[in-house]
Amino acid sequence: MNFPKSAGPRDLDGDLAWDRVRLSVVIPVYNEVETVETLLRRVRDVPLWLEVIVVDDGSTDGTGELLAKLEGDLIDRLISKKVNQGKGSALRTGFRHATGDVVVVQDADMEYDPHEFPMLLQPILSGKADAVYGSRFLGGPHRVLLFWHSVGNRLLTLLSNMFTDLNLTDMETCYKMVRRELLDELPLSANRFGIEPEITARLAQAGARIYELPISYHGRSYAEGKKIGWKDGISALGCIVKYNLLSRKAKLWVRPSIALWDSEERFGLKLNDRGQVP
């Protein structure tokens, strides 16, 4: 499927045509030389009009050199940091460079399947949502999770929900897909994994309509390279309190009059029963 290199004029009715909706994929990378190229090829295999932005967060294992070779082929924009500053810092950098209509976060560790992007886009393009979360706890196929890791995720989500008055099942999910106009308005400041509760708090404060959809998940073990640990969980507790009570809050978002409407026929996609492109 061929897509235009730049967005054209709006339809006469003010809608943005399916084939002119650009998805910016922001990929923070730190020491993922074994997986990042395979992940990028999976992303590029998704039949959507993509802008792939990779932020190398001070990798020291050869990842940076590999990414430099892939720029222009699998990567549209590569930003390299000299020192590691954390996932939140990398994401905020990537968000500032995103030019698409919708932005999604994609980790480089192969735990999440980018072929689920079309499914996640549906609520936004149909005008039902401003942001979509892919939940690992809504029944999608997944590798069996570590018990305490799963418990920690659920407890953090519960605490976040108590402050935001949302009913999420997976606040810590990587797959957060947001309309760029809304994302640009969120006052984000977290540098590490606290970016997850911060994005959620800011979306709630902005009055965003959030959908959750089940996704597949192939979690890594620590022996396989998983980086987040119990210290990050403790830090997340403080971040939930900080971004909901103590720091500058997001302004209520004024939703644009122009919507991204769903039109499967115009886009030419046929999804299977899991909302994926076969």
Task: Describe the protein's topology.
Layout: E1 22-29, H1 36-44, E2 49-57, H2 63-70, E3 77-81, H3 87-97, E4 102-105, H4 117-125, E5 131-135, H5 147-164, E6 176-179, H6 180-183, H7 195-205, E7 210-214, H8 230-246, H9 264-267
Parallel strand pairs: 1-2, 1-4, 2-3, 5-7
Antiparallel strand pairs: 4-6, 5-6
Helix pairs in contact: 5-8, 7-8
Short description:
The chain is of the alpha/beta class.
Structure, explained:
- The chain has 9 helices and 7 strands.
- The relative contact order is 0.17.
- The protein has helices spanning 36-44, 63-70, 87-97, 117-125, 147-164, 180-183, 195-205, 230-246, 264-267; strands at residues 22-29, 49-57, 77-81, 102-105, 131-135, 176-179, 210-214.
- Helix 1 links the parallel strand 1 (22-29) and strand 2 (49-57).
- The longest helix is centred in the middle third of the chain and has 18 residues, at 147-164.
- It has one domain (20-253): Spore Coat Polysaccharide Biosynthesis Protein SpsA, Chain A.
- The protein starts with 21 loop residues before the first strand and ends in an 11-residue tail after the last helix.
- With 278 residues, it is of the alpha/beta class.
- Helix content is 33%, strand content 14%.
- A 7-stranded mixed beta sheet has the order 3-2-1-4-6-5-7, sandwiched between helices.
